[in-house]
Specification:
Length: 145
């Protein structure tokens, strides 16, 4: 390699220019926010589908449920694609949407249908949350002495 040339794959990640560092936290916030909204809209779509296609449903409620399902489903995909564009990786965005969808579904199930989740279910949610925190946490660079 020639003197002064930058290696193609450096051992340490390149630092962002100062003008990008200031907006990095803002981009991260909007990525998480959009993914949380996508999960909530996804659970609303599922709840409206359950209401629309229930066993004894009026035709008007069925049509309203289908329209609500289509609207919230398209909002879910819109927010998810925006969250992907703001997120650092697609894995972080996907796990954030999944976590938001699970919590929103539990809340809507309790409010609309009186469903209560078991302790094992909440244990799984806690494990997903722990994985999400690990994915979002940034490792601090080690200083060489």
């Amino acid at each position: 390699m020639a003197a002064g040339a930058v290696p193609a794959y450096p051992d340490s990640p390149a630092g962002l220019p100062p003008h990008l560092q200031a907006g990095a936290m803002r981009r991260r916030f909007w990525g998480v926010f959009n993914c949380l909204c996508a999960g909530a809209f996804g659970s609303l779509a599922a709840a409206s589908a359950k209401l629309a296609f229930g066993s004894e449903v009026n035709v008007g409620f069925c049509i309203l449920g289908i329209i609500t399902m289509a609207t919230t489903n398209s909002l879910m995909w819109t927010f998810f694609s925006r969250g992907l564009s703001f997120s650092m990786s697609s894995a972080i965005a996907s796990v954030t949407v999944t976590f938001s969808n699970i919590l929103s579904s539990a809340f809507l199930g309790f409010v609309l249908y009186g469903e209560c989740q078991e302790v094992l279910w909440w244990g799984g949610v806690f494990l997903i949350l722990c994985g999400l925190v690990l994915m979002h946490r940034r490792a601090l660079p080690h200083k060489q002495q």
